[in-house]
Structures are given as C-alpha cells and as structure tokens.
Amino acid sequence: MSSQAQQGMPEAPGTDTSAVVRGYRATKTAHLKRLARIEGQVRGISSVIDGDTYCIDVLTQVSAATRALQAVALGLLDEHMAHCLVNAVEAGGDERDAKLAEASAAIARLVRS
Asked: In this structure, is residue 45 part of a structural domain?
C-alpha cells in the first residue's frame, strides 16, 4: 500500500485504493441517500424556475438545498476528523502537520461557502 493510501489521501489516477478505509465508511449509504435527495431538490428548483414560480419561493428552495449540502459537508468533516485526523495525530510528524493543515483548509472553505 502506498504512503498516500495509508494516510487516507487521494491516490494518483489508475492506482488501487481498494485497501483504503475512509472515515465515512460506516455512514456511506446514508450520505449517498442524502445526496440523492439533494439531487432531487436541485432538479425541483429547475422545475419551479421553469414554471415561473415566485422568486422568494425559488430562493427558499435554494436555501434548503444549500443547508442540506452543508449538513453533508459537516458530517463528512466530523468523520474525517474522528478518523483520518486522529490517525495522523497518533502517527505524528509530517503526516500530523499535513492533516492538520488539510483540515484547517477544509474548514476555511466551508466557512466561506
């Protein structure tokens, strides 16, 4: 297994990642179901715009879809911190520093969105 795979980092294209255990593994099915519902919400927004629905009603739907995506993101971040970040902290050294920087950057992206 490569160093990247052991750290839970993305592998280069064409490499085997079957042995990598992601932090969200236990909740993967729930995340996929939630994302499918969000996908339906977004398709619904297209439909209400196509149907000339009142602007505020469309914005309400956009806000709901945005909050749903944020909830998925926060769940994934929590799982990342509980699994990948904890493992990196236990390993220490450069791996710890890299994962802490990565988590900090992810949090910054979520706060900006």
From this structure: yes
What is the C-alpha separation between 74 and 69, in angstroms, rounded? 9
Domain extent, residue 108, equals 23-112
What is 4-45 written as a DSSP string? HHHHTPPPPTT---TT---TTGGGHHHHHHHHHHHHHHHHHH
Please say whether the beta carbons of 75 and 28 come within 8 A: no
pTM reported for the whole predicted model: 0.73
Do the Cβ atoms of 62 and 47 come closer than 8 Å? no
- Taking CB atoms within 8 Å and a gap of at least 24, the contacts of 99-107 are 99/7, 103/77, 106/77, 106/80, 107/77
Asked whether residue 10 is domain-assigned, the answer is no
Instruction: Specify the DSSP class assigned to residue 53.
Output: -
- pLDDT tens across 86-105, in order? 999 999 999 999 999 999 99
pLDDT digits (tens, 9 = 90+) for 42-77: 999 999 999 999 999 999 999 999 999 999 999 999
Under a CB-based contact definition with an 8 Å cutoff, are residues 19 and 5 in contact? yes
